[in-house]
Design goal:
single chain
């Protein structure tokens, strides 16, 4: 669950995220100091996110790096590479020349 300071498209959908099947479920609790903590759960969020990334890739949008292997080019999203691989996370965050746009 992710912390949320507010969201559009509350229960029942309305935005691109959370408009899939299943209701979103906001939840509020207070910690031991009385500070209010809000969480938001949208079961379809991960599916929507992956579909959105696949669409962007298929349309060639927002691709910010090209991996070349045996002279074959593979356009990619740095953030996806970094999220899925310790190696790419290091390369992307260190600004090394191995990943150049």
């Amino acid at each position: 669950m992710a912390e949320s300071g507010g969201s559009s498209g509350g229960a029942g959908g309305g935005g691109a995220f959370g408009s899939g099947p299943g209701p979103e479920r906001p939840n509020s609790t207070a910690d031991k100091n009385g500070a209010l903590k809000c969480t938001f759960s949208a079961p379809s969020h991960s599916t929507s996110l992956l579909q959105g990334l696949a669409t962007l890739r298929a349309q060639g949008q927002l691709l910010d790096v090209v991996l070349t292997i045996n002279r074959e080019a593979f356009p990619a999203h740095k953030v996806v590479l970094a999220a899925c691989s310790d190696y790419f996370r290091l390369e992307c965050s260190a600004g090394l020349d191995l990943l150049t746009s």
